[in-house]
Design brief:
The protein has 2 helices and 8 strands. It has helices at residues 16-27, 81-90, and strands spanning 10-13, 30-36, 42-49, 52-58, 73-77, 100-101, 107-112, 118-122. The strands form 2 sheets. Strands 1-4-3-2 form a 4-stranded mixed sheet, covered by helices on one side. Strands 5-8-7-6 form a 4-stranded mixed sheet, covered by helices on one side.
Length: 132
Amino acid sequence: MPQGPSIYPSFRYRDARAAIDFLRDAFGFEPVVVYENDDGTIAHAELRYGNGMIMLGSQREGDAYAEHVGNGWVYVVVDDADAHRARALEHGAKDASELIDTDYGSRDYSVRDPEGNHWNFGTYRPSLEGEG
């Protein structure tokens, strides 16, 4: 039986509902599940991109992770960095770096989401087996 990823980057957002919309529209993430609290904030959400997934939720009073809103950083593999960057910018991604070609064969760029998390996208796909 195939297994999913073993690592799930997780984020807290001041406005998690807006973050879900942004991540869907700008980056192409697909919401899988979204659980709401009684007050309408997001208790927990899971969003898929390819065979990977992130989790997120609303910042909450007394939350141990509250001070980390906007401090995340993640790398996501994309097939076409040029097209992906154009889409991200069209939907409001900020502080975009120029597209670069790396020495190890990747085409990369980076942006920040509306709450400041740093997102890197590129064509380099790490291997679990390493080189050789």
